[in-house]
Amino acid sequence: MKHPSLRATAAALALSALLLPAQAQTGWKRNAVPFYDTTHALQSLYGHWGKPRAQELATAAQALAPAVRALCEAPAGQSQAALANARGAWQRSMMAWETLGAVAVGPVIARRTQRQMDFAPTRPALIERAIKTQPQGAKAFERVGTPAKGLPALEWLLWTQPVAPASPACSYAVEVALDIEREAVAVAGAFDTAAGTDWAAEDEQERSTAAMGEFINQWVGGIERLRWAHMEKPLRAAQGTRTPEYPRAASNQASAAWKAEWSALRTLAVLPESAATPTPGEALVPLETYLRGRGLNPLADQLLATTQRVDKALQAIDQSGATGKAGGERVLQASKELAALKRLAEAEIAPALQVSIGFSDADGD
């Protein structure tokens, strides 16, 4: 039987399939696509997307602290194996977070989970200071600065300056892992509550409209975060032969993180060819299908075609890497295709759905 935490990597195990060139849906040409209203879209987003993704994160995070604690208690001669296990637990938690956090809706925004879970850049000086104070428990950890905790801080403690068993730094790493677990469990509970919202209720109409607008804006923001903050900005900041400081570079997981983000963005955008047309209220309704249900087939076709071009660009990185001059050119090409997807969303999709796009801190500068 597989360890429960491995479920958090289910999406990652299918990434190679997701990055293959997608084929156009054919079912909608033969069969009528049902009309999906805002209620169906939100039931889809919270119940069939957010809730299971948040639970995957919670499951992975609950295995993280025990793995780090085992490292701290590892006897002589077993520390390297324990470190590898702790790193694996971090990777599973990171991949689950990248999937959920790629489109930050509802509880992720309300709880400021992105800041708590994934503040960047981490600040080593603050980590060293926190190690000296040795905070214990949730209350004490509230006083620790955000740049000294979360997934980036734990990455620093497991890769950049690997903690040694029975050291103060290792004890602090356990507390960081426990803090990640607390937030992951809390956001999973919040998504469980949100999934039970009756979006069709008369007193929820205004909130439903706002939630739909939030989703479109955050989907666009997720595209831009991946394109600029995580890919192009670090590349352009590198000088000469300097290696770009991509997020997750210390753990050598930058490319894997990009693919996890894109997997989430893509899943919310287009329906796989083999998937049945979603029944309203009973399955995930990606944007392409939502548009088709409203008779906007030409726009849905544009969305599918643009998404396929991103697939192809990211697949090139997956096959040949992101390092060196050629690798940098592949990253820039992927960034270009992501920018085209963002423009389509802002100029065509949002207006068609009567959604206003606002400025986000994910926007490039």
What would you say this structure looks like, in words?
It comes from Acidovorax soli. InterPro entries: Imelysin-like, Imelysin-like_IPPA, Imelysin_sf. With 365 residues, the protein is mainly α. It is built from 17 helices and no strands. Helix 13 runs antiparallel to helix 14 (254-267). The longest helix is centred in the middle third of the chain and has 33 residues, at 205-237. It is globular and about 65 Å long. It starts with 9 loop residues before the first helix and ends in a 13-residue tail after the last helix. The model is unreliable at 1-26 and 361-365 (pLDDT under 50).
Q: How many alpha or pi helices?
A: 17
Give me the CATH superfamily.
Answer: M75 peptidase, HXXE motif
Estimated helix fraction:
55-70%
- Which fold name corresponds to the CATH topology? A middle domain of Talin 1
Q: Which CATH first-tier class would you pick?
A: Mainly Alpha
Radius of gyration: 21 Å
User: In percent terms, what proportion of residues is strand?
Assistant: under 5%
Query: What is the tally of beta strands?
Result: 0
Protein name: Putative lipoprotein
Pfam family, one: Peptidase_M75
Domain Imelysin-like: 52-342
Signal peptide: 1-24
Summarize the structure.
Keywords: Lipoprotein, Signal. One of its GO terms (cellular component) is cell envelope. With 365 residues, the protein is mainly alpha-helical.
Blueprint of the fold:
Blueprint (H helix, E strand, L loop, with lengths): L9 H4 L1 H4 L8 H4 L7 H25 L1 H9 L6 H23 L5 H4 L2 H6 L5 H10 L3 H5 L9 H10 L7 H28 L9 H33 L16 H14 L19 H7 L3 H24 L3 H29 L13
